[in-house]
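quick one before i forget lol
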Amino acid sequence: MRFYDGLPAVLAGTGIVSAIVVMQPTAAVALSGEQVNNIAREITVLIKGKEGHGSGVIVSKNGNTYYVLTAEHVVGEEDDYKIVTADKQAYQLDFSKVKRLAGVDLAVVEFTSDKNYQVAKLANSDTLTEGKPVFVSGWPRLTTVGNAAGGQLIRQFTDGRISGFLPQTLQGYKMIYTNTTLAGMSGGPVLDAGGRVIGIHGLGDTEDPRRLQSEGFSEEAASSIAGLIKPGFNYAIPINTFLQGTAQSGLYLALQVENSPAPELGAPYVASAAPDKRDTIDNINDVLNTVRRVTDTIQRVRNILPF
């Protein structure tokens, strides 16, 4: 893969044609945890299928087309997926246009909108070291408790630190961190203290069902419960793995990448006592129905205009 300093240049290719932009290695600005959360809110999306959902992050834009990076297993099976952005607008995902990166659990999906959505800045993940603060943003699936509390979907933003790196990658996963995560957050961004994406979350240790069986649970109950308990570390695919894999997969995107090391955190993140309304979806069906309303509006305009 070729990197370009300065102005964008056009790459010739048969797929998406654009430039990969690497910004000059100036020092990243140290942000507070709350400022990082504000960035994460704007760039994190919900990817909803009929049977479940995952998360993703907006990494590129070309005209009215936005490109979302996620874990491949989030869109691994053909389904009627919708992408929900920070303003609670849903967009249809064309499954035939899903781009999978070879050998790793990453995929790029796209949606079209004339709205202006924030695009993530990426950072050189090779500069990361143990002990650095990181944040994970994503939309957890509803648990039994969540359903009992009213069924509200709430984007989660959790803090932690890098605790190490796997000696050998597993489907691209290498970065280990202490952040709390839940199912449904797979595909969401891992951010550094500068609000830059340095990885894609998608894997976590889960409870051993055999231990639950030894405590009296049936085999069926133990298997069901074990997947909901995450007692250990979580894992991400470093963003450099994505950068290296795009060209190999015939995928060329306009990306904002900074080479500077992660800054120190300006102030720690303190979660509020109640969920921010900007991070909540009270009725997911109402949100998904916005796809139909947008489609109907476009069709009415086409019927009116003389072309």
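fyi Residues 1-18, 297-303 have pLDDT under 50 and may be disordered.
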